Amino acid sequence: MKNKVYKILTVMVITIFVSACGNNENDNHSPSEEQKIEVNKENKEIEEVMLSQQQFDALKMKIDTLALRNMSAYVEANGTLEVPPQNEAAITTVVGANVVSIEIIEGDKVNKGQVVAYLSHPKIIQAQTDYLNAYSNSDFLKKNYERQQKLYEAGVGSGANFQKAEAEYDASKAMVNGLEAQLRILNINSTSVRNGTIAQRIALRSPIEGFVQKVEVKTGQYVEPQTELFEVVNTHHVHADLMIFEKDVYKVKKGQKVNFTVQSIPDTELAAEIYSVSKTFEDNPKAVHVHAEIENKKGNLIPGMYIQGKIQVDNNQAKALPESAVIKEGDRYYVFAVEKENDDWSFKPIEVVIGTKDSDWVSVQFTDNIDSNTQFAYNNAYYLNAEIKKGEAEHAH
């Protein structure tokens, strides 16, 4: 009898235990499913921001459909303003001399051929007297040559005398021509010298039109030949000289547009067009020179000024939104689709892939199909995202 009771009790205990386990298993499963559904619902709920009309107006929200814009891709580049070599001149003297007077100062505008200084030295006077003596001697030898030629042709003069006279005359002509060329280099008129006028000083002239950049000499100073005395620059042909790094060289070519700024005109963007791309790299940094002709020259553009530029390397139409409409979360980008719900406004984040940036706009592509009539928030994207995070934090508690 006792054994039966124990068996019955044992069966009852086992039954109760199994039932309890079954109930526990069901209890463990059901709340989890319910909780999962609730969380999904909550996540779905906080994946949008609702604004009243009053909030909408206070934030000055801007909404519109996607814009189709011409989007330009750019290569950023820095450099300086420069002038071509033919528009820069270093004025030197070809003979050692003393500076008698200086006719210009830095900043002066000079014309081509204008006198910038006067030089004087005994060597200059000696060059003129040497020329005058050589010219007089050549004139004498010419007459002797003509006389010997007549005698030789008449058969009363020797051939040797005629040939000697001819050789001496030819040599004297070469001497005169050489000395006359030297006088031209010194800006001395050989005709005046032949007439007996010896210049006491010579004029140093500018070979180009431009502005005086440097004055490297003083009155009375003795200057050696080839010493740079003045520097003149023609700024009419100032251009943008940009440095393009190796990774961007293949994108840049002749004819592309450049927008750049200089510190002397801080609020003005200047435009230029590339007319030359160097074929060799500079060593430090490893980059190539790109030269661009400035189209809208304004203000005081001086060679050597630092510039910051952007080269337009591509131009195509794309769907775009203002940068103020896009947020970044981790490595993903989102925009906010807008719908009017009664008197309120609904803003829902939609993932996008961003492309070209142009000024304050960025091209976007959507991971899902979007109706062409969908409206988007054009501003305050980070405020809307902050509201979503605030909602997530509240649900977490």
Task: Give the helix/strand layout.
Layout: H1 2-46, E1 49-52, H2 53-58, E2 63-64, E3 67-82, E4 88-92, E5 97-102, E6 109-110, E7 115-120, H3 122-154, H4 159-185, H5 190-194, E8 202-205, E9 210-215, E10 222-223, E11 228-233, E12 239-245, E13 257-262, E14 265-277, E15 287-294, E16 306-322, E17 327-329, E18 332-341, E19 344-358, E20 361-366, E21 375-377, H6 381-396
Antiparallel strand pairs: 1-19, 2-21, 3-12, 3-16, 4-11, 5-7, 5-10, 6-9, 7-8, 9-11, 12-15, 13-14, 13-16, 14-15, 16-20, 17-18, 18-19, 18-21, 19-20
Protein name: Membrane fusion protein, cobalt-zinc-cadmium efflux system
Domain CzcB-like barrel-sandwich hybrid: 89-233
Domain CusB-like beta-barrel: 242-311
Features:
RND_pump_MFP, disordered N terminus, conserved putative lor/sdh protein from methanococcus maripaludis s2 fold, alpha+beta, 37% strand, 21 strands, Elongation Factor Tu (Ef-tu), domain 3, 397 residues, four-stranded antiparallel β-sheet, OB fold (Dihydrolipoamide Acetyltransferase, E2P), signal, Membrane fusion protein, cobalt-zinc-cadmium efflux system, six-stranded antiparallel barrel, rod-shaped
Explain this structure to me?
The chain has helices spanning 2-46, 53-58, 122-154, 159-185, 190-194, 381-396, and strands spanning 49-52, 63-64, 67-82, 88-92, 97-102, 109-110, 115-120, 202-205, 210-215, 222-223, 228-233, 239-245, 257-262, 265-277, 287-294, 306-322, 327-329, 332-341, 344-358, 361-366, 375-377. The chain is α+β, with helices and mostly antiparallel strands and 397 residues long. It folds into 3 domains: 47-71 and 317-396, conserved putative lor/sdh protein from methanococcus maripaludis s2 fold; 75-84 and 234-315, Elongation Factor Tu (Ef-tu), domain 3 (Beta Barrel); 85-233, OB fold (Dihydrolipoamide Acetyltransferase, E2P), CATH 2.40.50. Strand 13 (257-262) and strand 14 (265-277) form a beta hairpin. Helix 3 (122-154) packs antiparallel against helix 4 (159-185). It starts with a helix and ends with a helix. Belongs to the membrane fusion protein (MFP) (TC 8.A.1) family. Keywords: Signal, Transport.
